[in-house]
Design a protein that fits this description.
Blueprint lengths: L10 H8 L10 E2 L6 E2 L10 E2 L2 E2 L6
Antiparallel strand pairs: 1-2, 3-4
């Protein structure tokens, strides 16, 4: 069965509900080894390390 509203909801009421669907800025932290900006809890793309330990081999 589908929803069948008894009364009309105004445009303001509809838009108030949709107002909280906003994007948030990406949180960036400095890599502890090379200082590049990366997302937290992820391997650094610049040096390939995580928590000062080498995880990936980078072509340098």
């Amino acid at each position: 069965m589908s929803i069948c509203p008894k009364n009309k909801h105004s445009k303001a009421r509809r838009d108030k509900r949709r107002a909280n669907w906003k994007m948030s800025a990406v949180n960036l932290v400095k890599c502890s080894k090379c200082g590049a900006l990366t997302m937290p809890h992820r391997v650094c793309k610049a040096c390939g390390s995580y928590n000062k330990k080498p995880i990936l081999e980078t072509a340098e």
